[in-house]
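Narrative of activities, Objective 1.

The group set out to show that a structural description can be obtained from nothing but a protein's sequence at a throughput compatible with the screening campaign. Below is one input-output pair from the validation batch, recorded exactly as produced.
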Amino acid sequence: MPNSETAIKQALVQHGVLLVRCDWDAAWMRLAVGRVVAKPSGSKVGGHLFLLAGYDDAINGRSFLMRNSWGRWSLAGNGNAWLAARYFLAHRPEVWASTDVDD
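Output recorded for this entry:
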């Protein structure tokens, strides 16, 4: 699937939740007010799998709602957080949608 912000938003509307693999950095361990992933720190930690469950154009200049595959985020709360689209797209995302196949 093309990894543009528009294509990802369209896939969320068409398919629902999407599976994502992308690079992440130390900033992901700090959530700002409103469960927003902190500004990138420049220190790449590795790659990670998670789900994209939605988007909101009013949060942090356009953000995707991500669901952490660990089930929790750091030491507090649930696994949901908002990730700015510009930040997400800069971290080499691979995005997959699951679709029904006719027999």
